[in-house]
C-alpha cells in the first residue's frame, strides 16, 4: 500500500503543486488510513470496499471532530479517485460515502479599535518592534495567511503601484493592494531594520530573524500571541484572526463580496460568504443592545 500512497503524494506535489503544509496534512491523514487497512490485512487497493472506509470513519468518531473527519474523508476520496484515474483500480469505494454535516462556525475577528490597539503596542525603537509592526500592518492590510507572510520575498513588493504578490494555497499567486500605512511601515522596516537583521548576509525573503534567517510561521504566531496578551485582549487570537478582521472590516464598509474573495484568494465565493454571516450577527447584537423594543 505504501507504494500507492507515495505515488499519490508525488502526484499532489508535481501535478497539483500543493504546499508543504498541505502535503504534510495529506500524509498524516493517509497514514491513519493505511494503518487501518494494514490492521485488516488489506495490502492492495483493489481489495478495498466501502465497508472498509466506513469502518475507518466510525473508529475516528470516538476521538475526532466532524470537521476533521470531513477533511480526512476528502483526502481518502482524492486518493481513490487518483487510483481509479491511473487504472490501478476499476471502482471507487468512497463514491457513495457522504461527509458528516459540519456546523459552520463564525470566525473570530478583532474590532477596528482592537486592531489599532494591537498595532500601536509595538515598540518602534527596536529592530524587532519595527519588523513586527510591518508584519502586522501587512497581514491586516492585505489579508495574508501567516504562511504567505513568512514566505514573502523582497521581489514580491511593488511600492510604486502599491501592490504585493503573494503565493497562497496550491502555489496560486494573487495580487493584493498594500495601502498607504502598510507601505510606510514596510519601507521603514526595509530601510532601518532589515539590513541590521541581515548582518551583511543575503536573503531573498522579506521578513527576517536575527542572523538573516527567514522568519518562520511559528515565530509570527508567538509574536502575535504575545502582543495581544500585552494589550489585554481576551479573545482567542491567531494570525488568521487578522485575515478574518481584514475581510470583515472591508465588508462592513461596503466592499463587494467578489472583490473580497479575490483579495483573500478563495477559489469559491461560498468560502467568503461566511463573513456576511459575521455582519448579520453583529447587526443583531447592535439591534438587541440599542433598540428600545428589541428585548
What does this structure look like?
The protein is globular. The protein has 13 helices and three strands; from the N terminus they run αααααααβββαααααα. The protein has two domains: 2-85, Orthogonal Bundle (DNA polymerase, domain 1); 112-289, hpI Integrase, Chain A (Orthogonal Bundle), CATH 1.10.443. Strand 2 and strand 3 form a beta hairpin. It is mainly α and 295 residues long. A three-stranded antiparallel sheet has the order 1-2-3. It has helices at 2-14, 20-39, 50-60, 66-85, 112-120, 127-142, 146-150, 180-198, 217-231, 239-252, 257-264, 269-272, 274-290; strands at residues 157-158, 163-167, 173-177. Helices cover 58% and strands 4% of the residues.
Q: CATH topology of the largest domain, anyone?
A: hpI Integrase, Chain A
What is the CATH C level class of the largest domain, in words?
A: Mainly Alpha
Sheet with most strands: 3 strands, antiparallel
* CATH architecture descriptor text of the largest domain: Orthogonal Bundle
Mean pLDDT: 88
Cα radius of gyration in angstroms: 23 Å
Provide key terms for this protein.
hpI Integrase, Chain A; 13 helices; mainly alpha; 295 residues; 58% helix; DNA polymerase, domain 1
Amino acid at each position: 500500500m505504501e507504494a500507492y500512497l507515495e505515488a499519490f503524494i508525488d502526484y499532489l506535489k508535481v501535478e497539483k503543486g500543493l504546499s508543504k503544509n498541505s502535503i504534510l496534512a495529506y500524509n498524516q491523514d493517509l497514514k491513519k488510513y493505511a494503518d487501518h487497512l494494514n490492521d485488516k490485512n488489506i495490502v492492495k487497493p483493489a481489495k478495498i470496499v466501502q465497508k472498509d472506509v466506513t469502518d475507518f470513519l466510525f473508529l475516528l468518531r470516538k476521538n475526532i471532530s466532524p470537521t476533521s473527519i470531513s477533511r480526512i474523508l476528502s483526502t481518502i476520496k482524492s486518493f481513490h479517485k487518483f487510483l481509479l484515474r491511473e487504472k490501478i483500480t476499476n471502482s471507487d469505494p468512497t463514491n457513495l460515502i457522504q461527509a458528516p454535516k459540519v456546523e459552520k462556525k463564525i470566525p473570530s475577528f478583532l474590532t477596528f479599535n482592537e486592531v489599532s490597539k494591537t498595532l500601536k503596542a509595538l515598540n518602534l525603537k527596536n529592530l524587532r518592534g519595527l519588523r513586527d509592526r510591518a508584519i502586522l500592518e501587512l497581514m491586516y492590510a492585505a489579508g495574508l495567511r501567516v504562511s504567505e507572510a513568512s514566505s514573502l520575498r523582497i521581489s514580491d513588493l511593488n511600492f510604486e503601484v502599491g501592490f504585493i504578490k503573494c503565493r497562497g494555497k496550491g502555489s496560486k499567486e494573487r495580487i493584493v493592494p498594500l495601502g498607504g500605512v502598510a507601505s510606510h511601515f514596510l519601507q521603514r522596516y526595509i530601510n532601518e531594520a532589515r539590513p541590521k537583521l541581515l548582518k551583511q548576509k543575503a536573503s531573498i525573503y522579506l521578513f527576517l530573524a536575527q542572523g538573516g534567517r527567514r522568519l518562520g510561521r511559528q515565530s509570527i504566531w508567538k509574536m502575535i500571541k504575545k502582543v495581544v496578551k500585552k494589550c489585554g485582549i481576551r479573545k482567542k487570537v491567531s494570525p488568521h484572526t487578522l485575515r478574518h478582521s481584514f475581510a470583515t472590516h472591508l465588508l462592513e464598509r461596503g466592499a463587494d463580496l467578489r472583490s473580497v474573495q479575490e483579495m483573500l484568494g478563495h477559489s469559491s465565493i461560498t468560502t467568503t460568504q461566511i463573513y456576511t454571516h459575521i455582519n448579520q450577527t453583529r447587526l443583531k447584537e447592535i439591534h438587541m443592545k440599542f433598540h428600545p423594543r428589541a428585548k
